[in-house]
Design a protein that fits this description.
Layout (H helix, E strand, L loop, with lengths): L5 H8 L3 H8 L7 H13 L9 E2 L3 E2 L2 E6 L10 H16 L2 E6 H7 L3 H7 L4 E5 L6 H7 L5 E4 L8 E5 L2 H14 L5 E5 L5 H16 L9 E3 L4 H14 L5 E4 L2 H13 L9 E3 L16 E3 L2 H17 L6 E3 L3 E3 L14
Helix pairs in contact: 1-2, 1-3, 4-12, 8-9, 10-11
């Protein structure tokens, strides 16, 4: 049986091909009764639109992708899936197709990121969690494919970064702890290759330097943004930084691991050590009576990223970097520094 085409649907409905395309793609300028009629005819004829076909008078429907690393691992913080939800909403708002690609798909097919995008007919890509030192990453950033880097930045013609001001957020947290009398403030940072980790380290060091406090590399540990790794790193930190009174963690998940390790060492939060997280995951308000943290909205990130990429391609708009809002939320895991009396 010959597969029905868009012309067959248009002929039976008594409308133009453009009207059929608009009706099936959710455009609002088609009368509801006409849209319903076209949808019923398309369903009866088993018409399936070609994802690669051109529509609306020769204008292609955009095919955008989210290229992400680590999606196969459990996203305990929910941040990545929050971004995906926002991106999907942007696809509904602006009528573009949206798919998810993982770096594993590229590795399993032995394709570069550019080759993977071309194989899938991708017009533009949002990226997150990729190793910025990889040649494939730099190749993608310097290609003709429009890109939006989530939680990062990259200076290139077709690239826009979107993030909070991570350096300022880290500075704000460290400055707040200093204001409470803390001097031995440690940083449990994330992956060294991650732009967010580098920016948060910069803000932390700036605040320490401005206050005239010691900056010791032993006070900075790498928890890989993971609870278990931060748990293990805390024991190293306690050995290398005796008398630490506050630990600033680059994620709430790491803060959970840090608090667990502190408790096992007989240290109470915040009586002995103050702890600050980052992200404000749903569980944050229940951790240790409420975790002091920096809140950012992954849904807003994803939706803004999808909209920016759409306008970069559809409207030829140029962006450099977009800063999103954040909020420093003060809860129960931080207190003013009180020196312990000598025994």
């Amino acid at each position: 049986m010959k597969r029905a085409g868009i012309r067959d649907v248009a002929r039976e409905a008594g409308v133009s091909i453009t009207t059929v395309s608009k009706a099936l793609n959710g455009y609002s300028d088609v009368k509801p009764e006409t849209k319903k009629k076209i949808q019923e005819i398309a369903s009866r004829l088993n018409y399936m639109p070609d994802a690669n076909a051109r529509s609306l008078g020769g204008k292609p429907k955009l095919n955008l992708a989210f290229l992400v690393s680590g999606l196969v691992k459990k996203d305990e913080s929910g941040f990545v899936f929050g971004m995906i939800s926002g991106m999907y909403q942007a696809s509904l708002d602006h009528h573009f197709d949206f798919i998810i690609l993982t770096t594993n798909a590229a590795k399993q097919s032995e394709l570069s990121y550019i080759q993977l995008c071309r194989q899938k007919n991708i017009d533009g890509v949002l990226v997150s969690g990729l190793n910025t030192n990889e040649p494939y990453y730099r190749e993608l950033m310097n290609s003709e494919i429009p890109c939006v880097v989530m939680e990062g930045e990259y200076k290139s013609k077709n690239v826009c970064g979107i993030s909070i001001d991570n350096a300022k957020a880290a500075y704000d947290v460290t400055h707040y702890l200093i204001g409470l009398g803390h001097k031995k403030i440690a940083l449990m940072n994330g992956k060294e290759t991650a732009t967010v980790s580098q920016r948060r380290l910069r803000g932390y060091l700036q605040a320490m330097e401005e206050a005239g406090l010691e900056k010791d590399s032993a006070w900075v540990e790498n928890g890989e943004f993971e609870e278990e790794e931060a748990y293990r790193a805390t024991f190293r930190l306690l050995d290398n930084c005796p008398g630490v009174s506050a630990i600033f963690c680059s994620s709430d998940l790491m803060a959970i691991g840090v608090i667990k390790a502190l408790n096992e060492q007989g240290l109470s939060v915040p009586e002995d050590v103050s702890v600050v997280g980052f992200d404000d995951i749903p569980a944050a308000r229940y951790i240790n009576g409420g975790l002091t943290t920096v809140a950012q909205d992954p849904y807003a990130f994803g939706r803004a990223g999808g909209e920016i990429l759409y306008h970069m391609i559809n409207d030829k708009k140029e962006y450099s970097h977009i800063y999103m809002d954040y909020e420093f939320i003060k809860r129960a895991t931080v207190k003013e520094y009180c020196p312990k009396p000598r025994s």
